[in-house]
Amino acid sequence: MKQRKPLGWPKYMEAKPLAGGIRYFWNAPTWARKRGCPIKSEALGTDYAAAKARCDDYLNPLFKSWLTGGNSDARRQAPVGVFDWLVADYKSAKKYTKRPPRTRSSYDRALEDVAGFKLTDGRRFGALNVKSMVRARGSTRERKGGICQNEQAMSCQNVQREALLRC
């Protein structure tokens, strides 16, 4: 029976028992090599931490860049749990991708406005941890008879509400 790899094991990294102990290697998948992947397999040594760091910081991002044709280079991955991460997760979901292009571009503009909003302490809203957000109350919710007078504030609240529901 094939053993499962531990949690956090880098993609495409393999461990091979050799005479001197365990050695780590990075190997591109066979299908990628057949398609002309320029990244060669690499011996990573005997130190797990150094091998994992090399895979996570250099080899796997390089492979992903080749795989996406360079599209993954421009985007830096947001830390897990912040609003920017939530937006990126939503944009990769089927619920978002099945929307018409015009709707998606409208959503993109709105989400960029919300994420880029500067807080009083100078931080961006997109850098906030989603769990630290609380539902807006009182004067920030400008409602009159159940209809929001400030559409941008309501849009922000809807995004915030969905973010809280997903956690």
Q: What would you say this structure looks like, in words?
A:
It is built from 7 helices and 5 strands, in the order ββαβαααααββα. The strands form 2 sheets. Strands 1-2-3 form a 3-stranded antiparallel β-sheet, with helices on one face. Strands 4-5 form a two-stranded antiparallel ribbon. The model is unreliable at 139-149 (pLDDT under 50). The protein folds into 2 domains: 13-74, no CATH class; 83-166, no CATH class. It has helices spanning 30-34, 48-68, 71-74, 83-92, 94-97, 101-115, 151-166, and strands spanning 13-18, 21-26, 42-45, 143-144, 147-148. It is an alpha+beta fold and 167 residues long. 45% of the residues lie in helices and 12% in strands.
List keywords for this structure.
single chain, 167 residues, alpha+beta, 2 domains, three-stranded antiparallel sheet, two-stranded antiparallel sheet, 7 helices
Provide a concise account of the structure shown.
Helices cover 45% and strands 12% of the residues. It has 167 residues and is α+β, with helices and mostly antiparallel strands.
Write the layout of secondary structure elements.
Blueprint (H helix, E strand, L loop, with lengths): L12 E6 L2 E6 L3 H5 L7 E4 L2 H21 L2 H4 L8 H10 L1 H4 L3 H15 L27 E2 L2 E2 L2 H16 L1
Antiparallel strand pairs: 1-2, 2-3, 4-5
